[in-house]
Amino acid sequence: MNNLERENQILKQKLKVAQKWIKREILANIKSINISKANSETKTKKDNFFSENIEEIIYHKTMDFLWEEIFMYASKDVLEYVISSEILFFTLRNNKNLDWLWIITSYQKSFDLLVEEHITKPFRKYFHSKKIFPDLENDALEKSLYLTISKGHILGFWRLFSLLKNISKDAKLWFYSEIFKEFLEKYSYIKKIILEPEFLEIYEKIVDLETFWAKRHIWKVDFEDVVATRKYFLWDLENKNCLFYKLFQIYDSPL
What is the DSSP letter of 98? Predict the structure, then answer.
């Protein structure tokens, strides 16, 4: 066995150990979260909530869906939100009169974390490297980008969509939006994913459902809303033509 083969073998062994620890920690956290949610929603399902070991099934389904390499480098918080939402979707779907808002909240939190880690953070770094701070235009999107850069605010679901649509349509851009477009030109692996027409089409379908903003803010999310949102956001963790998987592809792209 040469040195390279030996190093690869050691790396694979370390990967297996890491997988076991990640799995143990994620499932422990998820079980605690979901038992609390289930108890608050319906007492009748309390005793048999995990009787079919569904948390294990969905954990492995998520890992298979993302591929092992991407899964291992993904944020534990993102995985917890998605796996937890899937477990509760399957265990509580027979009672369609429940409050489904928290599932949408889990989707949005996982979206925010993905965007923050792999789009917003490198954008902030790129912007600060330019050492330019112009006057702020009286524009909602520009103000949002300013706060994202200077105050560490998240680049929210609706704001990011508006920004990407403006860039894709070659609309007039103010200073901060123009710098974001310039950032995407430099980091083409991000641009390739988030300005892809198919990505924007799926993104717009979720926006049109209003579950991530209008309905969420007035607490008007029902089972049909969750099913429709889940279709475009996760697509049963089977069809990779969904927003979640496309965002996760950024993990697999070189810096």
Answer: S
